[in-house]
Design goal:
It is a single chain. By secondary structure, the chain is an alpha/beta fold. The protein folds into 2 domains: 266 residues, Aldehyde Dehydrogenase, Chain A, domain 1, CATH 3.40.605.10; 184 residues, Aldehyde Dehydrogenase, Chain A, domain 2 (3-Layer(aba) Sandwich). Helix content is 38%, strand content 20%. It contains 15 helices and 19 strands. The strands form 5 sheets. A 7-stranded mixed sheet has the order 14-15-16-13-12-17-18, with helices on both faces. It has a 5-stranded parallel sheet with strand order 9-8-7-10-11, sandwiched between helices. Helix 9 packs across helix 10. It starts with 6 loop residues before the first strand and ends in a 15-residue tail after the last strand. 52% of the residues are buried.
Length: 497
């Protein structure tokens, strides 16, 4: 019998109030039941938020360097258990083992980076207009932070949010994606082992429409940090606006690689394969569009198709596997529906375009790497996020037209250009309307010391990652100290001014 897991609330592991559970299945082999997890509802969320409010009252008074020590210890445990956790991730989420280990490493890097902030968390001191008066602005914690994360980076993304929230003095209620509850449980176990007091982090499993919605709406939550689809992000933003809550959104992308006529084609093909089919295309930064100058479009596309043809599907635990499964049956059907849409709009499928059901692949959710040709910018496969191993190839007659096509989407997360012309590279950096830009590299591969996020429907202006996450996880408090011993009035005209 598979293990039954629990929520973590107020320092205790507890079942859902309803007693209901849901199954966590291996997407590469759906006969493999990983475990059963609590199907929580508003009652469980309320218990977690109340525990977090109590935890926050104590945690905010712990000096920041000591708070950071808990994060540092969590990073050390992650480093020690990296191989084990990577294999668990591949079993639960499906990405190939090397990518899963990279996901864990990102969590380790985030711990290292944010632990240092415990001795920084810089404020600002500026001159005052009156004598013998000190003015400064300091950071204070927000309160209770609701952390809602997706399944595609089940360790990295939670650490991007939870570690800075903790260092800044907040308490956290963590609601992970229902497709990857085991990795969330492991992360919370590590935080408790690292010495985090009960109530400072609570874990509530469940379905988004039930536990997630209740968490976003709860009046005891001060900030919602959400990563997921644009459709759900809009709903989260609407609820938070009505409640007056802070909200940080990182949502979808329809990212483009531009390949100019002077590009190193083999390098560009490497980038397109990695960007389009790495993590089975299940990244918000995936390169789902490739815009190729017409002078090299034929040669590039031939090489791209040939490389895709050689990709091997299978369990991510097998060393020979290049592309793992998609996360679940619903997503598999969604990807296949977009293939139908592309064909109906006149796009030509050069390779793939169907689920893979031969042999052991029939037990999982596998989709063959797919490349569309004859794609026009107005087609849905060129505008909408598919979130699978599907790449649309578009042609451009010039640099300016390539930029125009790249920007012709409601998203604005990541983009890339392959060119050996430095002038073109810098013109692209200036013109591409995305939060992240790569030159002669693919659209994926963020580093924790830099801001991560995008524009338009990709987010709401905040940037997690790097130092900018501190502006989400803290509020500013301005302090004036007048040591003149007399009443001084700022912004009042006087004869001596």
């Amino acid at each position: 019998m598979s293990e039954v897991y629990q929520n973590y609330i107020g320092g205790q592991w507890v079942s859902a109030v309803s007693g209901q559970t849901f199954d966590d299945l291996n997407p590469a082999d759906t006969t493999d039941l990983i475990g059963r997890f609590p199907r929580s509802d508003a009652r469980d969320v309320d218990r977690a938020v109340q525990a977090a409010r109590e935890g926050f009252a104590q945690w905010r008074r712990v000096p920041a360097p000591r708070r950071a020590e808990a994060v540092r210890r969590a990073g050390e445990i992650l480093r020690r258990r990296k191989d084990e956790i990577g294999r668990l991730m591949t079993r639960e989420m499906g990405k190939v083992l090397t990518e899963a280990l990279g996901d864990v490493q990102e969590g380790i890097d985030t711990a290292d980076y944010m632990a240092g902030e415990g001795r920084r968390l810089f404020g600002v001191q500026a001159p005052c207009e009156l004598p013998q008066k000190l003015g400064l602005a300091v950071r204070v914690p927000v309160g209770v932070v609701a952390v809602i994360t997706p399944w595609n980076f089940p360790l990295a993304i939670p650490t991007w949010k939870i570690f800075p929230a903790l260092v800044c003095g907040n308490a956290v209620v963590f609601k992970p994606a229902e497709d990857t509850p085991l990795l969330a449980t492991v992360l919370v176990e590590i935080l408790t082992e690292a010495g985090l007091p009960g109530g400072v982090v609570s874990l509530v499993h469940g379905i988004g429409e039930e536990a997630g919605d209740a968490l976003v709406r709860h009046p005891g939550v001060d900030l919602v940090s959400f990563t997921g689809s644009t459709a759900v992000g809009r709903q989260v933003a609407t609820i938070c606006a009505a409640e007056g809550k802070k909200v940080s959104l990182e949502m979808g992308g329809k990212n483009a690689i531009i390949v100019m006529d002077d590009a190193a084609l083999d390098l560009a093909v490497d980038g397109a394969v990695w960007g389009g089919f790495g993590t089975t295309g299940q990244r918000c930064t995936a390169a789902s569009r490739v815009i190729v100058h017409e002078a090299v479009a034929g040669a590039f596309t031939d090489r791209f198709v040939e490389r895709a043809r050689r990709l091997r599907l299978g369990s991510g635990l097998e060393p020979s596997t290049d592309v793992g499964p998609v996360i679940n049956a619903r997503q598999l059907q969604r990807i296949h529906e977009y293939t139908r849409v592309g064909r109906s709009e006149g796009a030509r499928v050069l390779i793939g375009g169907e689920p893979a059901t031969d042999g052991a692949l029939a037990r999982g959710h596998f989709y063959r790497p797919t490349i569309f040709a004859d794609v026009e910018p107005a087609m849905r496969v060129a505008r909408e996020e598919i979130f699978g191993p599907s790449v649309a190839v578009l042609r451009a007659k010039s640099f300016d037209q390539a930029i125009e096509i790249a920007n012709a989407t409601s998203y604005g997360l990541s983009s890339a250009i392959y060119t050996r012309d430095i002038d073109r590279a810098f013109r692209a950096i200036e013109a591409l309307a995305t939060g992240i830009i790569y030159v002669n590299a693919s659209t994926i591969g963020a580093e924790v010391q830099f801001p991560f996020g995008g524009v338009r429907q990709t987010g709401n202006g905040h940037r997690e990652g790097g130092w900018t996450v501190l502006d989400i996880m803290t509020e500013w408090k301005t302090v004036y100290v007048d040591y003149s011993g007399r009443l001084q009035r700022a912004q009042i005209d006087s004869a001596d001014r």
